[in-house]
Amino acid sequence: MELRALGAHNLESAGSRLVSLLVDGVLALDAGALTSGLTFAEQRRVQAILLTHHHFDHIRDLATFGLTAMGQRSLDLYATEETLAAVTTHLLNGVLYPKLHERPNPQAPTFRLHPIAAGQPFAAAGYAVTAYPVRHGIPTNGYLVEDKAGKSLFYSGDTGPGLDWPGQSPDLLVLEVTLPNRLEATCLEAGHLTPGLLARELAGFQKRQGRLPPTLVVHWNPQFEEELTREIGEVAASLGGAKLLLARDGMRLAL
Ligand SMILES: [Zn+2]
Ligand SMILES: [Zn+2]
User: Fold this and answer.
1) Centroid of ligand 2 to alpha carbon of 33 (angstroms)
2) Ligand 2 centroid vs 6 CA: distance in angstroms?
3) Which of these, 220, 250, 223, 222, lies nearest to 235 by C-alpha position?
């Protein structure tokens, strides 16, 4: 399994892209950088998209990605009923942008919508996927994704403290950290993690599973790079040299 962090951040600038991950070039997790992070040829390879929730930084490129695909092919979009409704009501609504779940025609739309429910495994682009509820301002699911060779990762989406880890032990954790430790109150209010809060989650995982897989940190606010780099380093040291990596836009990891 190859994981590419198309975008690693919660804010966009000329030097930072919104959160979006790509597994083996074909399965996208969140859509914050699906067009800003991929060439047209790479976009054509994507077969399915999983959305963790409908906050704008996670769905933004659905519109631009879908318009490029419209009339050329259909692809699968997986999310909860609520997130699919938010996307089709507020973004792909025929006002802001075409109804890409109905066009070019309802029998073969650009996006085939697949409502999913937490805890019920499903297949997407040939991967076994299970959604796990996490704690955020709106209903949000993390995803456990497993390939046919048995390699797996768990991506949290946006979450505050209190993760219920999947029973299975993934080979890679992709977790959010949004702000530095001194802004913990803001994170707790909005349902996000700081490095300090992440440390407690990882300690919980280690206790439950008896091991700690490498962890990739995404959704980090690029305005606090220096502070977050230092604090993530402190977390790694506090967990006995755990492998913690701040994701960079375009970064590739092989599992
Ligand atoms: Zn969010
Ligand atoms: Zn977000």
Assistant:
1) 12
2) 14
3) 220
